Amino acid sequence: MGRLSVIKTGPIATVQDFGRFGYRRYGIPQSGAMDRQMMIAANQFVGNPENFPVIEFALMGMELEALEETVISVVGASLKVNGQVKGKCEKVSVGDKVSVSSPMFVYGYLGMGGSIQAKEDFGSVSTYERAGFGGMDGRRLQTGDVLVSNGEGEISVQVDIPTRENAELVTIRIMKGPEWNLLKELPSFESFQVDGSSDRMGIRLTGARLACDYQEIASSAVIPGTIQLPADGQPIILMNDCQTTGGYPRIGKVFVEDLGRLAQMKPGKKVRMVRVEN
């Protein structure tokens, strides 16, 4: 068993696993790690199954103290133990001070050997704050929380860490959505930037207005990756905590494999969307 006490944490740190599936018809969002590939790497470093819970943190890092011997990993940020720079995975002892830096991109992941204990709702411990599901009683981590894992874990060095671009322009693959034909012209997605109001619900893009034969549609199913087009012509790409239905035209859908890369794009970065025939 591992135990870590939270000494200091940033404004956005939550327990996440793969998320909830099979409940959208009841209005329950998927949630789960925004960058699944990085979450998987954090688990692999400590010898866990891919879907074990991790701590997802954004904007700022964390400071923790080991209450028991614990195998930990950090992906998407840097790790120090007692002030010494470490690799991606380390076994810490009682009293060790653990410092995790701010994420290199948007989200970073902290793994613990064994399964992090958290509240389960609808088959997942992923935190969904709006409904109080999962995590630490449905909320973000805060000072004084104790993270407990139910296993020992083991250090692994043979792990492929997914590449995340720090370029000013990132290309994302999309397919046509149900209302694609409402567009009056093919969009020039290069002109769009990630807006600072983006969050776990959606990535807002700003730039030239997309010309569209706009009309509100009957409330229809949406999923993470759906590209909605509001009346202002500025697309919204729905993400893990998105609603289950919506009334905006669904002009496209981002490939699942590219959602992690999209989630890691900082505000101000540009998006080029390339349509793959479907």
Characterization of the model:
With 278 residues, the protein is mostly beta strands. 5% of the residues lie in helices and 32% in strands. The chain is built from two helices and 20 strands. The strands form four sheets. Strands 12-19-16-17-14-13-20 form a seven-stranded mixed beta barrel. Strand 16 (226-228) and strand 17 form a beta hairpin. The longest helix is centred in the first third of the chain and has 10 residues, at 36-45. It is elongated and about 65 Å long. The relative contact order is 0.19. The mean pLDDT is 94.
Give the topology, please:
Layout: E1 2-9, E2 12-16, H1 36-45, E3 54-58, E4 62-66, E5 70-75, E6 79-81, E7 84-86, E8 89-92, E9 97-100, E10 107-112, E11 146-149, E12 169-176, E13 192-194, E14 202-206, E15 220-221, E16 226-228, E17 236-238, E18 245-246, E19 250-254, H2 259-263, E20 270-275
Parallel strand pairs: 12-20
Antiparallel strand pairs: 1-4, 1-11, 2-3, 3-10, 4-9, 5-8, 5-10, 6-7, 6-9, 12-19, 13-14, 13-20, 14-17, 15-18, 16-17, 16-19
